[in-house]
Amino acid sequence: MQSNPISANNYPSFWLDKPYYSLNAYCRKTFHEKLYRIAVDAGMTCPNRDGTLDTRGCIFCSAGGSGDFAVKTEDLSVAQQIDAGVSLFHEKRTGSRFIAYFQAYTNTYAPVSRLRFLYMQALKEPKVAGISIATRPDCLPPDVLALLAELKAAFPDKFIWIELGLQTIHEQSAAYIRRGYPLSCFIQAAAELARLQIPLIVHVILGLPGETTNQMYETIRLLNLQPVSGIKLQLLHVLENTDLAADYIAGKFQVLSFDTYVNLVIGILERLSPRIVIHRLTGDGPKNLLIAPKWSLDKRKVLNTIHHEMRVRNVWQGKRLEEER
Prior knowledge:
By secondary structure, this protein is α/β, with parallel strands linked by helices. It has 11 helices and 9 strands.
């Protein structure tokens, strides 16, 4: 088996001198500029909230359905929300284009006619390089997949990404967080998206109650074998007014410490295929809702510490990949 060609201080030039393949590096390599996400709210709901599967939502999910950072403009069109989002970047030096991120709740959970209207609003915007659609693998029926293929052909100069909230491969954890679908459903959805050549970004939560470090590594090992283009690593946040918060306050579990999280992320990156783009290394918990861990509010410190420790330890994305096989 061929050895890993990446070594310390000899990362691929397009990694931009980071010890992992970041989204920024991918965008600059592919689109020749940095692309910022603009989160929009398409007014969706979720089968975990409307009674199809449950009415309570996932155990960690706030009332905003993971869309707490989306532009709060429910009376505006997608195009108007994008304009409002762009205005938030007026003090940043950005590229000329953005990613329209359909974030809140389940963004394929509507009639195809409505989905086509919403997605086309975004794809027709000149300032939008492409769209990223957050959804569930059990909400990708054949008619939705056909729509994605239709739009991919209609907008060859734009991209369409699908983001799926897998969180974990372990069924016990999945049952606890009320995910509502089996692992086989995710694997099937990943195969269907690969058939359509639509990139898949997977969300993984680190620090779920009861999961060991090796169990989290097992999630990464499986994703290495799947047609996954990108990954978002999300620290478990405890937010107000969630069932997870009730368990935390009752002392049923503890959140990860700063040092534990840094070590865990580094271990995961060492085991992650270097072909998979890192879209996120930690997460943003809304300051007004976050109960724990409070250290996560200093996102810059978290990222800087991960970068520093990887260099000090002489490790990089995929370093342990061969020994993991």
